[in-house]
Amino acid sequence: MKYSRLTKEQFESLHEEFTRFLASQSITADEWEKIKKETPQVAEDELDVFSDLIWEATLSKVEFLENWSQNQVYLFAFGESQINLIAVKIKKADVDLLTNEGIQWLEKNIGADEVELYEGTKNFNDERKIEIFDYIKEGAIITDGGFYNTLRELL
What we know:
By secondary structure, the protein is of the alpha+beta class. The protein folds into 2 domains: 8-61; 64-154, no CATH class. It has helices at 8-13, 15-24, 29-38, 40-61, 100-109, 128-137, 146-154; strands at 64-68, 72-78, 82-90, 115-123, 141-143. Strands 4-3-2-1-5 form a 5-stranded antiparallel beta sheet, with helices on both faces. Pfam families: DUF6495. This is Histidyl-tRNA synthetase. InterPro entries: DUF6495.
């Protein structure tokens, strides 16, 4: 398995896609139930293959990720061969960027001394999709890049 297995909730939300996946392998609903009961390892393998297909499709479309913590934000923009980063660090202890108040504070004080902005660029160390997946495993979420682009204009 190249990535990780989808969660039960993800499989449930992708029920139709999974049904089509099984159908593409000429596996009917009745046959799937039989496989799960009689050869659970084969069922597990099918779940893994489907998970990797979904991850591949999803990761190939990712252009932006964000990773937020109480006092830092990492904004990633992914090109074909490199990653562009904008990092925001808050040096004010009573600001929590995981709250609405913290985000509002940041919007009002983006140019303040308590806010440090960093930029960086690096080439992918590994396959593009693998690196994006690693950032997601570390807590980053896929976004439309709105905040990244806003800060990019400021810088």
